[in-house]
Amino acid sequence: MKKNNPIIAIVFWSLVSFLTLFPIYWLFVISVKPAVQLFSTPDVILSDPYWGNYAKVWGDRLLRSYMVNSLVISTGNALLCTILGFFACYALSRFKMAGKESLFFWTITNRMAPPAVFLLPLFLLMTQVYAVGDFRLLDTRIGMILVYCTFNLPFAIWTLRPTLDGIPKELDEAAYVDGASSWKVITEIVFPLCRPGLAVTLILTWVFAWNEYLLAATLTNFNARTLTTGLSEYVTTTGTEWGIMATISVFTLIPALIVFGLVQKHIVAGLTFGAVKG
Amino acid sequence: MQSNRLGWILLAPTLAILFFFGVLPFIYVVYVSFHQWNPFAADPTMIFNGADNFRKIVFDAEFLNSVGVTVLFVLFAVISELVVGYILAQAFMKEFPGKAIFRTIHTLPLIMAPIIVGSVWKLMMTPSIGIIPHYLNEWFGITVNIGTSPVAAFATIIIMDIWHWTPLVTLTLIAALVSLPPDPFEQAQIDGANKRQIFFHITVPMIAPAVVATVFIRLMDALRTVDEVWMLTGGGPGSATRFVGVHIFKEVFPKTNYGYGSTISVIVLYLTIVACWLLYVTMLAPRSKKD
Amino acid sequence: MSNHDNTPLSSAHHEEEDTPAVSSPKAGFLPIETNWFDRLFISVVIWVALSLLWFRFIEPMGLSIWISNAIALALAVLIISKG
Amino acid sequence: MAQVKIDNVIKRYGSLQVMHGVNVDINDGEFVVLVGPSGCGKSTLLRMLAGLEEISDGTISIGERVVNDVPPKERDIAMVFQSYALYPHKTVYDNIGFPLKMAKRPQDEIDRKVTGAADILDLTKYLKRYPKELSGGQRQRVAMGRAIVRDPQVFLFDEPLSNLDAKLRVTMRVEIKELHQRLGTTIVYVTHDQIEAMTMADKIVVMRDGRVEQIGAPLDLYDNPANIFVAGFIGSPSMNFVHGQIVNEGGVRQFRSDNGLMLPLPDTSAPDGTKVTYGIRPEHITIADHGVPLRVVVVEPTGSETQVFAKHGTDFIDAMVKDRFKAAPNSEVRFAIDPANVHLFDRETEQRL
Amino acid sequence: MNTVFKLAASALALSFAAGMANADDAFWKEAAAPYQGVTLRGVTESSPPSLYIREVLAPQFEELTGIRVDIETTSWDQMFDKAIKDMEAGTGIYDMVYIEQDIVYSYLARDFLTDTTQLLADNPALKAPTYDEGNFTTFADYFRGENGHLYGIPMEAFIKIYLYRTDLFEDPEIQASFKEKTGRDLAPATTHAEYTEIAKFFYEYGQENDLQLWGATVQGHTGHPASWYEYVETVAPTFGIYNWGIDADNNYAATVANGGEMNSDTAKEALQWWLDLRQYAAPESNQSTWTEVGTTFGAGRAAQGLVYGENAGWIAADDTKSLVVGKVGVALPPLADGVMAEVEGGEGYIGYYDGGAFGLPSTSKNKEAAALFLEYIGQNEVQPDWAVAAPRVTNTATYDDPKVQDMNEELGGYYDMLRDKGYLFAGAPAYPFHAQLREAMAPTFYSILTGDSSVSDGLDKMAEIAEATLTELGYRK
Question: Model ipTM?
Answer without folding.
Answer: 0.82
